[in-house]
UniProtKB/TrEMBL annotation:
Protein name (record): Lissencephaly-1-like
WD repeats: 1-31
Organism the protein comes from: Hondaea fermentalgiana
GO CC terms: transferase complex
The keyword Repeat is annotated on this UniProt entry: yes
Length: 138
């Protein structure tokens, strides 16, 4: 699962970790461990990252990577909100003007904020695409 807000990307994985990335540089900033099962969804609100697995929800400080308890987090969002990214044939992101992105693996999660697209595939890769001057097709 992937989410983006501002310059922060959060990705949740089958390896039971949440990773925080810098959207501009693509550099991984933190690996967050605390789930006992694979991560199904992540969301970002302000400085809080919310991650969900089958049987638990965890809260994290996006700036420090520290675990938070639910009271500290004061989060009121539901992870898993879909964003509009046009995926074709499970491996291709289609943008207007014939521009696109293809991976060898099935695209399992995607998020978009403005011109930044974050694509997660079933190989565990997180692809960060910076696209200028292109609108998505509906």
């Amino acid at each position: 699962s992937v989410a983006i807000q501002g310059d922060t990307i959060a990705s949740g994985s089958d390896d039971k970790t949440v990773r925080i990335w810098n959207a501009t540089s693509g550099v991984e900033q933190y690996v967050l461990k605390g789930h006992s099962d694979r991560i199904n969804s992540v969301a970002i609100q302000g400085d809080t990252i919310v991650s969900q697995s089958r049987n638990e929800t965890c809260y994290w400080n996006a700036r420090t990577g520290e675990a938070l308890d639910a009271d500290e987090a004061e989060a009121s969002i539901t992870p898993g909100k879909k964003t509009l990214v046009n995926v074709e044939n499970e491996t291709h992101v289609k943008l207007s003007g014939g521009i696109g992105f293809t991976t060898d693996y099935h695209i399992t999660r995607s998020a978009r904020q403005g011109s930044v697209y974050v694509i997660g595939d079933d190989k565990g890769m997180v692809h960060i695409l910076h696209v200028q001057g292109v609108e998505t097709e509906s």
